[in-house]
Structure formats: C-alpha cells, structure tokens
Amino acid sequence: MERSDVRSLYRLGAFLAVAYSLPFGVGLWAGTVHANATWMANLASVVLGGIAQGGVYAMFAVGLTLIFGVMRIINAAHGEMVVMGAYLTWTAFSVLGVDPLLALALTMPVAFLFGMAVQRLLLDAVVGQPELTALLVTFGLGLVMVYTAELIFTTDFRTIPYAPGSVRLARGIAIGQSRLISFAMAVVITAAVYGFLRFSRLGKAVRATALNPEVAMVCGIDVRRIYLVTTGLAAALAAAGGALVSIQFGFNPETGIVYTLQAFAIIILGGRGHYVGALLGGLMLAVLENLVSLMVPNGTAMVELAAYGLMIAVLLIRPGGLMGVKEG
Amino acid sequence: MTIRTLAAAVAALLVAGAAPAWAQHRPNNEVLIGGAISQTGQYAEPAGRQVNSIKMWVDEVNARGGLLGHKIVLRLLDDKSDTQTAIKLYEKLITEDKVDLILGPYSSGITEAVANVTERYKMPFVAYGASASPIWEKGRRYIFNIVAVAETFQKGGVYLAKQIGVTKIAVIGQDSLFPRQSGKGAKEWAKKLGLEVVLEENYPVKQTDFTALLQKIKAAGAEALFSNSYFADAAAQLRQMREQNINFKLYSGTVGPALPNFPEQLGATAEYVLGFSLWEPLPKVLKHPGMEEFIAAYEKRYGEKPNYHAGSTYGALQVTEAAVKKAGGFDPEKLRDALATLDIETVYGHYKVDAKGMNSAEGLTFQILKGKRHVVWPDKWAETKPELPMPEWSKR
C-alpha cells in the first residue's frame, strides 16, 4: 500500500467516526437521546434494522458492480431486473403457491438465462465501446422491461404477505422475521458468489477478465463466455434481490429505478467494481440513514441528504470509493 | 411598410395566436378531446383507473351519438408522472393539436403546474386528479375542483381518535405536495378537537425503511399515527410496526389503504387500518343517481369495481358533458361560465362550485375489517361501527 493510500484510510476513519457520532450529538442537543434501557433497546433495534436493510441494499448492488467490474458497463436496467425477480417470485407465490424462498431455486436460474440472453443479444455489441453507448442500450432495455411488466401485471402495487411476525432478540429488541430471513439470504447468496469468484476456476477467470480482458484472452480464457456468465450471474443476483423486495416492500413495474439509483450510489461509495465494497457501502448507508432518522428532529426528511453527503465526503477523501483502487 | 400595416399585421398575428382552439374545423364532424395522464411512472396506478373511466365515457358518448352530435376523438398522452413533461404536453395539445376540450392530469403537483398553462390559454377543465386546495387560492378562473380537498382526508380519522380518548398523535407523510396538505389538515383538525401533535415528520418519496421513525414516534408518546402516504410507504410502515411490535390505538392512512388491492396484498397486516376515500362504489350507501349503472358498466369492462379515482373522473366527465350542453358548443369562455354555474348531481356526488371554483365534496373514512373496506365515518354514511382501538399485534 502506498503511503498516500494509508493516509487517506486514516482520514476516512476519522471522518466516519465524526459522521456516525453526529446524529448522536444532534440527538443530545435536541433531547431525543435518552440514557435509559428502553431507548437503548430502541437504538439497538434501529441499528439492527439498518443492518438488515443494508444487506438488501447490498443485494441490489453486487450484481451491478459485477457487470461494471468485468465489462465496464453501467447496467441501467439493473433495477428492472430486480423488479423482474420480484414479479417472478410474486407469480410463483400467488399463482403456483410456492414459498418465496423456495422460489429462488426457480427464479434465479430463469434470471440467469435472461441475463445470458441480454448479454448475447445486446451487451456483446457494446462491450469495449464508449460507456455512454452501453448506458443507452441498457436504459432502453430497462424501458422495454418496464412496459412489458405493465402489460402483463398492470401498474398495481404488489407485495407478498410473508413471515410478517417479529423475532424478539432481547427485552425490547426486535427484528422482523421477513427482514431476518432477507438478511440471512443476502449474506448466504453474496457469500456464495464471493466464494465462487474467489476460489472456483470459472470465478478466477471472471476476475482475470475484469483485470485485463486482452491478457485473459491470451491466457486461453474464453472472454465471451465469461461475459455471458457474468451478466447471467448479475441478473440472478438482481432476481434474488427482487425476492427480498417482494417479501418486504410494495413494488410495481415503476419501482425499478429506485433500486438502480440505490445500487449505483452504493457501488460508487464502495468502489466501482469492488464486491466487498458494495456490501460495506450498503450497510454503511442504511445504518447512517436509520441513525439520522431516529435522532435528528425531522431527520427522516434528511436521510437522503445524509446518504449523499456521506457519499460525497467519502469520494473527496478517497476518489475510488471505500475499497476502490486507484484507476489510471 | 408603414407603421400602420405593421401594427395591423402584429394585431392579426396576435388575434390568430389567441384564436380559440374550438374555431378549428375538424373533418368528419369530430371533436378532439385531449389530456396528458400518467400512464407510466410513479402515478401510473391511480391515473390508470382514471384512463379507464375516460375511455369508457368516450365510448358511451359516441354510442349515444356524440357530444352535441360530434364524434369524440380522444388524444391521451403520457406525462410519465413528470411535471415538466406534463407542461410540455399540455402546451402541445393546446397549441399544436388544438384540442377542443382539455382533460386534467393526475396528482395535485402536476395539476398545479399544468394549471398555469391552461390558464394562459384560457382552457377550462374539471380537475378530477387534484385535491390540494392551494391550486384554487391563486385566483385562477379556468380550473374547477370536484373532489374533496386534501385537508379533509384525515378529518374522519382525527374525529375517531378523539372518540376513543386519544390525546397525543403523530403526523407523518411523504415529502410531496398532496401528503403535506393532508398532513396540514390533520394538524388543523387535531387542534380544533384539542389533540396534541407530539411529532410531525416528512420522509423522502423513496423511503422504504421506517424502523427508526416508528421508534421515534413511539418514544414521543403518540397514541395514534396519521400517515399521509401512498401504497409502498403505508405497506412498509404497517409491516415494520408489526415487526417491531409497535402498537398504536389507531393508524390512519390516506391513499394507500384506499387502493383496491391493499388489503389483499398485505393480508392480516392491513386489518383495522383506517383509510380515506373520496368515494366508494356503494350505491346503497351514497345514493348518488346513476351510480349502479356506472358501477355495473365499469365492472363489466374492466373486471373490477371502480375506485374513487375512476368515480371522480367519471363524475367530472359528466359535469363536462353537461357544461358543453349548457354552453351549446366548445367556446372556452362559455364553457368556463357553464362550469362555474352548473349545479348537478353525478355518480360522484353533487357538483356546484363557489367563487374560487371549489366544490364542497365530502369524503368518507373507512376501516379495513376482515379484508374488506367498511365506511365508518361520517355517521350518515357509516356501514358499521369502527373497531378501535386497534388490538395489539401480539393479541391478534
């Protein structure tokens, strides 16, 4: 590690310490912080809730970061893929009566195939082209997906009433069943993909292609096949994220853009193309948002301010994002 | 060229530019009716039901022989739920397409912006998609209100809270024009009835996690929660209340619980929730003339009963039709006067506006019980007694 790199890490640490204690400071000043057991339990619930939400955010982000890392393509249709996953899960649940978790065994392969088709038919043509070209192509794909979903499902909101109960962890500390399940699922799936990228032969080839496609090709890696796997995987991850959406939030064909933006913010924060960075970024954003919402007066109106403020500050200190390596 | 001819030319141009759109003669004895409604974007869902009513009305009128004998040609554009797009499209509809009649957009925010355009070109319309009263507080002459204004959405909820002895309430809502107005109304009614507002907070449109806000509301000591929300946010709030075992004696939403599929999609979590509806397809309760026929025709065509978005739109179109007949044509000025003075009953209820152009429609508060909506307030329309306070989550 270079010296400047180490220095920026220190600065980042100092900044984060300030950023996360700021809501507490405001809370003390405004009288919304109380030194009793009930409030502490509330705080714990809220932080836990933030971590669970962060896991879901991260689920959105890892697929996006994967495609970007390997092909330098910003997939503007990522949120729509998430929504596609949500609809697949919803259909499996309400038409076929399949449990939303078991439905993953069905939805992820379907999404994987869909991702491969997208790669073959659209993205292959734009890999290596200027970034804007790919952005436009995926944006168009997103629009097509939105309108197709509206034709099939109308614009009505849907959600799955799944595991609505509460899990009591300690006195006064509770977390929703569906959130806990979502979080566990997010951890398992991202860990599995991480393991795949880290240890499997194919995963290593994916990483090699991300580092340098030409050299990878020279070493005998079929780069086109790697691209195919990458987009398939990203779509499958998006679909898994969609399953989480379907059991926690309401969605309609239009909500995809929200997930795209969220995922985009997270991968910028975490470091573009960096898998662990996306995880970390998701958790950091969600926890900060919850702390601000809990303690700052009218704080919920300011969560976006806090989130994007954090992002800007982190980028000022480390232009490559949390885990970003210097480009150049 | 003399100054005089130049002046005459300019005057002629001005006259031509200001010439009312109705003066355009259309082929085949047609009349062009146009509007931009959110067929995609965040408002696509409620606006979609308005589109249903519009299409149905157009077909019905054409089957009856048209509007004053003119066959209606409908031009519906999509503003993508975006204010700027809506402004551009209305400008286009009026100046390029030269529509004879304008149909309103959906949502208070978009209507407010579009009203500036329609006002400039003096094109009157009944704003079935807008319920924020500030729209009618700017001296506008060509926009007419039909639905109950946002400030009255939480009135019933506040009255019911008072009835069950609640003293402290929290008012939250999405950070946009309409929810802010209904929140303002909730606070005013609370003040009138002597309830204390212990917390008031808005959240961004995209918010999905309310855990922290709910904990904060509980810590502030609120016994009842008034949430000025749509589907996704109301659904998330209720779910997270249940997850965190946070109990209120009353939860009163606005638009979300009124959507037809809210109870069905949310299941047991939606039970006991209060919501507001400008109108319900209940002919036996509301007793507006023509309701039964309208409901039957709508259900036959779209496979579901009309909700209030569909009802208010159809009512507004009945008003428009009556105004055209009264005016005897499509002259915007005469149409405006007709809309300002009409006094009629529609499937949606009574229409008679005051000097500001505001109708005094009254809405109804309902409660979701066993997956069905039941009107619980005002008393004259109540189908059943409200089941309040809401039972605690652990006792359900």
Secondary-structure map:
The complex is a heterodimer of chains A (328) and B (396).
Chain A: H1 3-30, H2 37-71, H3 78-94, H4 104-121, H5 131-153, E1 166-170, E2 173-176, H6 177-199, H7 201-211, H8 213-218, H9 223-248, H10 256-270, H11 275-295, H12 303-317
Antiparallel strand pairs in A: 1-2
Helix pairs in contact in A: 1-11, 1-12, 2-6, 2-9, 2-10, 2-11, 3-4, 3-5, 3-9, 3-10, 4-9, 6-7, 6-9, 7-9, 10-11, 10-12, 11-12
Chain B: H1 3-18, E1 30-37, H2 44-63, E2 71-78, H3 83-95, E3 101-102, H4 108-120, E4 125-127, E5 143-145, H5 155-163, E6 168-174, H6 177-193, E7 196-203, H7 211-219, E8 224-228, H8 231-243, E9 250-252, H9 262-266, E10 274-277, H10 283-286, H11 291-302, H12 308-327, H13 332-341, E11 344-346, E12 349-351, E13 364-369, E14 372-377
Helix pairs in contact in B: 2-12, 3-4, 5-6, 12-13
Question: How would you describe this structure to a colleague?
Answer:
- The complex is a heterodimer of chains A (328) and B (396).
- With 328 residues, chain A is mainly α.
- In chain A, 73% of the residues lie in helices and 3% in strands.
- Chain A has helices spanning 3-30, 37-71, 78-94, 104-121, 131-153, 177-199, 201-211, 213-218, 223-248, 256-270, 275-295, 303-317; strands at residues 166-170, 173-176.
- In chain A, a hairpin with a 2-residue loop joins strand 1 and strand 2.
- In chain A, helix 2 packs antiparallel against helix 11 and helix 7 packs across helix 9.
- In chain A, 52% of the residues are buried.
- Chain B folds into two domains: 23-148 and 288-351, Response regulator (Rossmann fold, 3-Layer(aba) Sandwich), CATH 3.40.50.2300; 151-277 and 363-395, Response regulator (Rossmann fold, 3-Layer(aba) Sandwich), CATH 3.40.50.2300.
- Chain B has 13 helices and 14 strands.
- Chain B has helices at residues 3-18, 44-63, 83-95, 108-120, 155-163, 177-193, 211-219, 231-243, 262-266, 283-286, 291-302, 308-327, 332-341, and strands at residues 30-37, 71-78, 101-102, 125-127, 143-145, 168-174, 196-203, 224-228, 250-252, 274-277, 344-346, 349-351, 364-369, 372-377.
- In chain B, the strands form five sheets. Chain B has a four-stranded parallel beta sheet, covered by helices on one side.
- Chains A and B meet through helix 2, helix 5, strand 2, helix 6 and helix 10 of A and helix 2, strand 7, helix 7 and helix 8 of B.
